[in-house]
Each structure stands twice: as structure tokens, then as C-alpha cells.
Queue: 4 jobs
Job 1
Amino acid sequence: MSSTAITNIATLVTNDPSLDESPLGLIRDAAVVIDGDRVVWTGDSRKAPATDNRVDAGGRAVIPGFVDSHSHLVFAGDRTEEFNARMSGRPYSAGGIRTTVAATRAATDEELEANLTRYLAEALRQGTTTFETKSGYGLTTVDESRALRIAARHTDEVTYLGAHIVSPDYAEDPAAYVALVTGEMLDACAPHARWIDVFCEKGAFDGDQARAILTAGRARGLHPRIHANQLSHGPGVQLAVELDAASADHCTHLTDADVDALANSGTVATLLPGAEFSTRAEWPDARRLLDAGVTVALSTDCNPGSSFTSSLPFCLALAVRDMGMTPDEAVWSATAGGAAALRRDDIGRLVPGARADLVVLDAPSHVHLAYRPGVPLVTQVWRRGVREV
């Protein structure tokens, strides 16, 4: 292993609140020192210790690598026609998932993995260094377990989502499908996953079904997360808090009781603005959540139906423009917030001991991510101490 100092950083975002009045822990005229795959020092660039290598950041900003804590990347096909129709006036519903299920079942393992790696490379170029991804487009024991095996070759943050929708094969007997998801399918999938998720929504699974599914997963060692309150008010957020889910994702339609429950829990509210952009739905009110003291994450929800973007910078800009977040809050939520949604403290920060995942921006400040939306500002990406972009 060798050590590297990245110096001449205009603004370094550490996400160490002890360093600055802001939660971002900003250091101006900074340096960060990497030894192996870890950060070992941050501080004034002029005081950087001797290292084997030095890299001049050229007065650019450096932030932690983005942590995308919600994606659906094991799939085949796309839903261009559905998107086109929706942008022409047809409303979004959960039913379109069936189109992707059919294409995914028909694809080979090699096709699914090639598609996955394509979107991972795309996300990496945009600064994402950690990602979570789910099954959910197979909805049979064989197809769900193979999706998780493929995903697990590329990330530790793998989520079993057999409960995405009721399988078309069980359209007339949802109870039998819940029994499959909590029985044979769970047995096949649990060894390949860390998390279990359920789409708790009209047209998918109700509160009682969702509780049964998440409880069964937890008994098998999988920790809960949940698609909650995306399309309507529902029991998802309250269920997430009840079961100590790591995150409740979407959180668009919330009561005051939902907000209070999140604020007094360890459950992160993961907001997915790409979904609202792509469905012309109501924006989540991030300001309401933040002002109540809720921990908020930002993620892409990258999937072929309702949010076909792998760009966290794009989602960050949407959150600032349309969801009431400040640029500082959005950057924190896309880095440290995503790490919190995965219950990780080794990523999403640039502090001694953290994993050396960082992004160099072709700009002097992280604020440019929202200030210059759509501009490819990511100029370097380091993951585990190695420059990959």
C-alpha cells in the first residue's frame, strides 16, 4: 500500500460537524491524505504530512463519494413507450412493473449482469461510489434469487424485494404470493441479501401484508427497509418506524404523525426526486422533514419505469430547486444521509478511518452541483483509495 496526499483543494466537504458550524464540516484550502483504502488525515493544505504521492486538485472542491441507497438495477428492457405516454398525460401506477418483470424473466444471467455493470459504470462516472440495489423484477423463486446473486457480485448492499408487486402468476391469490415471498422464496434469497424491502402501496401490498413480509425477513437476519407513502397516504412510514427499518423511501404523502414518528426514530427518510420528475407527481416536502429533525437521504431510485436516472447530481439539483433543500443539505443527504440509510459510518464522510471514497469537482465549491445543473462537474472519482475516473 502507498499513501497519497490530494492538496490544493478549494473546499473540502468532510461531513464532520465538529470542524465547522455546518454539518458539512468544510475545510478551505485543504488537503486529504489517503493510506491504502482509508482516509488518514484532513486539514490545511500547507500542513499536509509527507506521503508517497501527491496530487494537485488545482483549486477544485472535493466531496465524499455519493452513496446511492435506493436503486433497482437488475432488470432487462426499458419502458420508453410508457414514459412517452405518461408525459402525454397518462398517470403513473404500480402496474407498469409487470412489463419489466416479463423482460427480466426472459433475459439470461449474462444479459442481466451486463446491464447492471453498464449502469454501475454510468453512476460511477457521476460520482457514486457506494450503491444499494434490489431484486423485484423476477417475482419467482428462481428469478429473485438469481437477481440477488448477480447483484451481490457487485455490492454488499443487496436488498430482497420479492414484494415489489404481487406476481402476475398470483393475481387471483395475493395471499398465496405473500406465503411464497415469506417462505420458499425467502429461503432461497436470504443468503444473498442484507436487506428486505416491500412496496407498501395501493396496487401492491397493504400494511398487514407488508408487516408479515418484513417480519419474516427480519427473522431470517435481513434488516427491513420499505417503499412508503409514495402514491398516497398509507401505513408504510408508521410500519417502518415500528419495525426499526433503516429507511422509509419516497415519503411523499405524510401526515404530521408520520413526520413526528420519523423524527423520533432511527429510520431515515430517503427521498427520490427522480421519481417525481419522471412521473410528474407531487414533490416530497424535504423542508418539512428537515425542520422536524428527520434524517434525510437523497437517492436516484434508478429503475426503468419511474426514475430512469443514475445521476445523483441531477437528483440533488432537483431537491434544491423543488423540494426546499439548501445546497448544503442536499450534498449531505446524498453522501452522509445515504450512508445513514444503509447504517454505515465508514462511507459518506472524509474523516480519518473512513473509506477513501471521494469526488473531485471541476468547480471551487460543492454548491455548483445545484448552481450548474446538468453540467458534468465530476472530474475525478476515487474509490477505496484508487482513482477510477
Note: The mean pLDDT is 96.
Job 2
Amino acid sequence: MDLLNTLVDKGLRRELPTRDEALAVLATSDDDVLDVVAAAGKVRRHWFGRRVKLNYLVNLKSGLCPEDCSYCSQRLGSTAGILKYSWLKPEEASKAAAAGLAGGAKRVCLVASGRGPSDRDVDRVSDTIKAIKDQNENVEVCACLGLLSDGQAERLREAGADAYNHNLNTSEGTYGEITTTHTYADRVDTVQKAHAAGLSACSGLIAGMGESDEDLVDVVFALRELDPDSVPVNFLIPFEGTPLAKEWNLTPQRCLRILAMVRFVCPDVEVRIAGGREVHLRTLQPLALHLANSIFLGDYLTSEGQAGKADLEMIADAGFEVENAGEVTLPEHRAPSDGGCGSHAEAGCDSHAQEGCGSHGAAGCGSHAGSGCGSQEGGGVCGSAPEAPAEAPADARTDLVSVRRRGAGTDLAPNA
């Protein structure tokens, strides 16, 4: 297929595809999906080999959010039966993180619901970062706390944070349909604050909220322009009790096409399969490893994930290997001179002057509105959604949506 050959060539050169080419990937048929995966897999292997980076989420504060992100189980007005608790103590968060690190995770993502942190919250998180790093020398720590005020990113960096996650979630054109409590520009501003402070930017999207192919291409092109080091791709988990509970728009093949499009547009950045992979990719999860070079290990913020042991077996069975703590994730041209976790040092995906495929302007661990660092349950800033259909389609896999009842905020051992 000429389209795929062209996209492979561009990906190996870090050259931006055209919008029409990106749309054509999403429009390919299910009969062609293996060809699409094989082509995007060449780009993934060129920049990242067969390594898979493992990330582990710690939900520092669950529920209790004043924001109304329509996809989020922690939103204001949500009736989803999730765990609700206030801030974990640093020692509690460090203990939770240790389980993921023991399972092979290289990065710990510290997430808290809410619009954004107060200065006191930043102090809390700073103490938690120190507690984790005191016990784990090589761990990367990413914070995902929502919209940042001036000076807060610098304080997190001084405390030892390596990265900040805040997701764009969806296109600027449809953002107001998903979020009403803040703007798309607010999200871009937070990612830019993180980048300016020297933090590695992490920003991604949520697919499956009823968006069009054009919306998906818009948000991924916006991410490329913003140039983050990592791009989490969340697949909507339609929680009962949220406005998007009836949105079941994804098939495993559709998810693979979305991941392939992201890889072609952002060839040399960490593409992470985040929340919803078990629900929507299901038995095709191993194929997605040929497109993304990063996943979350174990559970998400408010939902249960695949067993950590099963994640590790899946990686090995598919012929991939877990990335070690001492390995640099990003290609040399993007990696910082100090060997740290991320960077814009020179650039990336060819677009905009030295920038890479993503950007800091967008978002992080989800910002909570989406999730980011992992799951679209993140917390925070979104808004009301389009009116939901009366009932879910007959093929909706509601049986795969399981609320987290273990790990952080409970007395039960975590899944890692």
C-alpha cells in the first residue's frame, strides 16, 4: 500500500505526515489492519527497538473533585461507586509506589483529583516525591495534579519530579462539548509551564468520546506541535454514573488504527497505551505493543487493570522486553544530556524548530480530566458532555469495567 510505505519513510525521517494521510490511516478497513500495524511497527522499532516502558499509577487523592469532566468517574456529580479518599501520606504513597517498582515499573505517576494544586498541595506532593526517591534511586516520578499556577512547576522540579502530565484530551474545536470549567488554552498553558520549568512534558488524548476522525487528527497534530516527550493514548472507560456512560464507540481494530496514526504523527516520542486498553483492545493488546512503546502496569486510578503478572507475560510472549531502569527511553536526539527521562533537547518530530512530536502544552497525567498519566479517570477539569444516548449498544463490554477496590486508599495489596 503506497500510503503505508510513504508513512514509514516519513516516520523514519521524523517528517510530519499530511492531514489527509493521517485521516487515511483511520479510514483503512479492518481487512488492512495488520498491514497498518506492520507499517507503524517499523517506525516504532526504528526509534525504540523492542523495549516496553512500564509505568505505575498512584492515586494520591481519589474522587472529591469539584470539576465536571464528562468522562471522569471522579467528577462533580458522578455516581460511579469509586473509592473516595483525601491525600495519602508520603509513606503511604511510597509504599504503594514500591509495589509497582517491584513489578518492573520504571516511572511512578502521582495523580490527584481536583482543578489544580494549592501551594500546600505542592508541599505534600514534594514530600511524597522525596520519600519515593529516597528509597528508589533510579525511579522517574511524574506528577499529574491539574492546572498549575505560576511557580508550581519549578517547585515540583526542585523537589525531584522528572515529568508533568496534563492531557489535551480532545480537539480544540470540540473541547467545549466535553469541558466547561476550563479552556483548551488553560491546558496548553499548564504544559508550557511544565516544559519551561525543565520538566519532561507528558500530554495525550482520550479516544472514544464520540469524536470524529478529524477531531482525532486535530488533537494529535496539536500534540506534535506542542512536542511532549510522551503521549498517553486513553480509550474511554464508560463508567456508569458519568455523562459518557453510554459511549461505546471503539472496536479493537479502531484502537489499533488510532495508535498507528499517533505513531506516524509522533514517530520518536514515547507513545503510551493508557486507560481502557483492557476494555477496548481486549485480546488484541499484544498487537498494540507493535505501535506503542509504553504501558501502565496493573490498575489505573479508579478502575482495575489487567493483572500485573499477565502484563509481563504478554510483553514476553509478544517478543518484547521490559525497559530497564538504567536505559534511556527516548532516542538520542531527544534525550537530555544528563541522561534523564525526557526531553526536548533538540527536537523531535521535525516540526517546529527543534521540537518533537508532542508538547508541553497540553497536558499531563491527565490533568485530570482525562487522565493522562494513565487513565481517563483522572480527576479534574472537564465539563459537561453531550447528552448520552438512552442505552448502551448491545455489544458494549460493561463486564470489563471494574472499579478499583485494592491498592492505594485501601488495606488490600495493589495489583502490580
Note: Residues 342-390 have pLDDT under 50 and may be disordered.
Job 3
Amino acid sequence: MAINLELPKKFAANIDQARQAAHEVFRPISRKYDLAEHTYPVELDTLAALYDGLAAAGAAGAGAAGGRGDEVKERPEGVVVNGGNMQSIINSMEASYGDVGLMLTMPYQGLGNAAIAAVATDEQLESFGKVWAAMAITEPSFGSDSAAVTATAVRDGDEYVLNGEKIFVTAGSRATHIVVWASVDRSLGRAAIKSFVVPREHPGVTIVRLEEKLGIRASDTAVIRFEDCRIPAANLLGSPEVDVKKGFGGVMQTFDNTRPMVAAMAVGVARASLEELRKILEDNGIEIDYDRPAIDQHAAAAEFIRLESDFESSYLLTMRAGWMADNKEPNSLEASMSKAKAGRTVNDVTNRAVELASTFGYSERTLLEKWARDAKILDIFEGTQQIQQLIISRRVLDKSSAELK
């Protein structure tokens, strides 16, 4: 099937809405909540009500219902779809253009929602499709190696009992639910790792602390402890069966949804930085001419063109990964490619923008220095640059994780 690079007309109203939120809500309060970390952005309450309405209609961007809406419909062979994944990517891109930290604290936009969309059964989508879910994977003993999960979920009748500690949980103290990765049998290795939906306000769930961070300060980042936390067995996402032959593949499908979303965030921040940099350069008499060779232009203009080309490739890789997910094509390789390229690009773009804008860029007179700080996490969470390159290499060379480490 061929992808059409033109954005679907049915998303026009959605895009316009997200752009208005970015310009009129997020951008004006961006600096305020960067300086007031852990303060809840009360201005988001109106938008939260709006997204609540969208969630009820099955169109809440990253919401679980939106992520799988097109999969339940049969369609003729060869007919392509632009559905929930593409919509999530566009929403994330446009909102992050305003402020990625504020985007990450919006209800129904949590990475946990994309996780629910990736592996939940149809019955679970009915139950959890309207919750706001954070995602808890990382632990004090590991970062990018998701297979190293030590949190446990022990079956006890019709319940699971969760124990363990999770760190760097984005929106962990604000989301209504948390998607927790835990092992149902440590002796079976990574194949026994499952994801569970846990209400945040639930016996055995403790918000230990909130982290002080380099960037995305408008979004809280929590340490959460689970102590003898009992949840219904139905809250295990997907199948409870442990398939050692399938290995880690089931729960890892989550990343095929969430990595393009993070790539979209990076694309949004990169676009914001490029627009601001272009304005600064043009205000200082530096013309960017696409009809002249870079060598014949001001060095800053030539560098801008280079950065913009990387931005364009990041955008296209991200859109392809989302399109493939909507059309039920395996996109693990493309998801990692989009995350790796966009994560690397947004850091290059934002840091070079600060440099090219000189003292103006390094000061707080613009948001360039803030975007440079925000950009760093976009190359780290949901799998670091190094992890993405390792995954890509395995896919391209057809090597297993044991063969290529």
C-alpha cells in the first residue's frame, strides 16, 4: 500500500484545534510553568474538559479508544486508513509546538493511553478507554533495558498483588490511572512481563516524591511505590498467558505506538525552534534562499537549511510510522527509526538555534533556551538514542537480541 503524504482532510478541524491550543493556551504560559515546577497549570482545566468530550466521542488524540478505532472495522483489501495513531501523532506534534511539558500533562494524552491502545482487548478498551493513564516502566535498578523489570504481580484468586517501585513516571501524580509493567513469574524471564492498569488513588499506591528536572518542568515526574497493591485480574492488559516462545514481544508492542508519539513531540519542538530562529535571522538581515547553493549564502542561513532538512526527514519518518500502525503493517523498525531520527534532530536543532541566536538565544528573552532543555528528554525516554539504533540494527540485519547486543 502507498502512503499519501498529504494530511487527511478529516483531520483539518483537529489540527486547527490543536494549533489554537498551542498558540493561545500553551505558548503564553510556557515560561510561567517552566519557572514554577510542580505547580498545576490551572489554565488547562478548560482544555481538559474539551478533551474529556473528545474522549467520550472516541477521538481524544492519544486515548485508548482512538488508538484502535479503525482496527475493529473490516475494510476491503488495498484500502488505506488514517486513524487513531495518525491522529495521536498530529495532536502530539501540534501541542508540543506550543509546549511539550504542558502537552504531557494534558488528560488523555498520557503514554499510558497509547499503551492501553496497543495491547488491550476490546473489553478492556470499553473499561479503560476513557481514563487518563501514565506509564510506569523504569525502576531504580535500570533505565532503557525494559526486560530488567523487577516489580512483581502475583496472582491471588481473582486479583493480582503488585509490589515494586517505579521512577520517572510522567504525569504520575496527576493521571487517574497508571499502566505498570511487572513480572507475573520472575523465573520465566522477560516473557512473563505484563502491563497492568492501576488506579492512582488505590490502596498500596504511594507517590513517594516528584523529581526536579532539566526540562519539561510543567509536567510532573513521579516516583511511585506499590506495596501489596491488589487489583482485579481483569486489569492485566491483553492475554494473561505467558508464552516463552513469543518472549517479550507482546508487551513491547506498546513501544510501536508510543515511540512515534515521542517522535512527534520532538518534531513539534524542532518546528517551534526553527520558526523562532528564522525570525531572528531575518530580523538581522540574514536571508534564507532555497534557490542558491548553501556555499553562496551566509553561514547561518546555510546551517538553517541543513537543520530544516533534518526536520523534514524526521517529520516524514514519524508520519510513516503512524500510518503503518493504522494500516496494521508491522512498524517496529519504522517506530524506532522515527524516534531515533527525531530525538537526535530536535537536540541538534534546539542547541544550534541557541548558538546561532547568540546571547539572545541563551537568555530567557525567547523560549529557545527552554526548548533546548525540553528537547533532551525526547532523545531519552521511550528508549534512548543508543537503544533505538540497536533495535534498528537488529531489524535491518535480522539479528536477535542475543546475537546483537
Note: The longest helix spans residues 249-283.
Job 4
Amino acid sequence: MPSATPELISPRSPRVSAARRLAKRNFRGKERLFLAEGPQAVREAAAHRADGDATLVELFATVEAAERYADIIGEARTAGARVHLADEQVIEDISTTVTPQGLVGICRFLDTPFEEILAARPKLVAVLAHVRDPGNAGTVLRCADAVGAEAVVLTDASVDLYNPKAVRASVGSLFHLPVAVGVPVEQAVAGLKAAGVRILAADGAGDDDLDDELDKGTMGGPTAWVFGNEAWGLPEETRNLADAVVRVPIHGKAESLNLATAAAVCLYASARAQRASGGCRSVTES
């Protein structure tokens, strides 16, 4: 049973100041640490290990949250994380949300080298090219996790993977599948093509219709979907890199779909095609 008295009560504490700085990208990059807020993210972080090291290194919790989520506190301690009971004002000071849930973890960076993703011969990959909104990035990552994709790639023109809003929007999926960051889009496409992956660019003005692709039976093989900026889509030079530029059909009167919704439709279409009878489950299978 946790103590009724928090040990950290001042927002000016060195530990609190160090955690608060991780809300800024330059400090995250320097320390190679990021914030994970809320019970779901902290639980997943406590269970995650990379190269033998625990991902969660430190956890701040209010007394109330420590009592409510005693199992998460136990998992964090088992993982070797330092656990601090903190005053509610301290948690509010560290948190980047309007209504903190009483748990804020500090985690090690966990991105995967792009070469390792290619070596694993993935059959379904989401490539985020020019995606600037962190909420969209995190939601697409969550969709990729849900469909069983093997990896996500964020190009060097996309948002920071460890932006607190992106981490929250992933709802723990950040800790479930390999993610490569900072890969130039040309390198990403060339590497995936060399690994036997077909490249489909998702664009509302695409020449090919997703329904037609499914009807033709062309989506059962290894596939990488390239998603662009919600406001202006993919630039022409990026579309030209793809094997096909595919639009999600609009059968009703909606003007368009937002990025995360379109990504979910595309990824689920590929996942279904790959799981159908005769679908290619691995690039090594005939």
C-alpha cells in the first residue's frame, strides 16, 4: 500500500524539471527519452523491452493513481523503473494533457533501424510521408497495429514519433510494432521495393480505385501504403515513386476522408486480401 504522503511536492524539483523538459523535441532528442501518459501507455511501456533493456525508466504517480493502478506500479517496479509518488500539482506540471490521469512515465527511445525492418521481410507496412499532425501519426500507428502490420516508417519530413500527442494517440501501439524514423521517402520506397514489397500511394486523386484493386486480386502480396499530409496529400514526386496511386472510393456525398480514416480503410483492405485464400502471407512463400 503506497504512502499517503507524496515524496515530490514541488514543481521546481530537479527530477520534475527534467521530466517537464521532455515535452520539447530538442530535449527528447538530446536525452533519447520521451513521456508516456496514462495507464494504458504506462502499462505497455512497463512490459516493453528493447535489446534486453526495460523501456520504462521512471514513473511519476499521484497517491490516488498509485492505489488505483497498483498492478501497473508493481509492473513498473519489476521492470526496474524508479517510481515517485508525486503531488497532483507536480503531475499536472509534467503532463501535457488538460486532464492528467495521474501516471506519467519516462521511456527510452524505441525506434528500430530501417535495415532491421527490411531484414524481417515485412508483408504489410505503413509509410508516413509528410504527415505533420501528431494525432494523425499516432492514430495511423494504432491502425497499423490493429491490422497486424509488421512495421511503420516515418519519413524525415514527418512529425516526431515521440511528440506527446502522437504517443497518446497511439494508445500503447507505439510499444507493439517496429517503427523506423527519419527515413527519406526515396530511401524508404527503394528499400521496400528491393525487399519485394509493392508500393501503393494513398491519394484522393489517384488513378486506381481501391475497390478495383481488390476485385482484380492484386493486393494479396507484400504491400507498403504511403500516406501523406491530410491538407495537401502527397507531392507528385512521391506519387511517382509508387507502383500505383490508389484512391478510396467515395460512394456517398462526403467531400473526402481524413487521413487516419483513409489509412484504416487501406490497411484493412490489404490485411483482408493477404489473409484470404491464396493471399501471400510472406514474401518467402510462393
Note: The first strand starts at residue 33 and ends at 37.
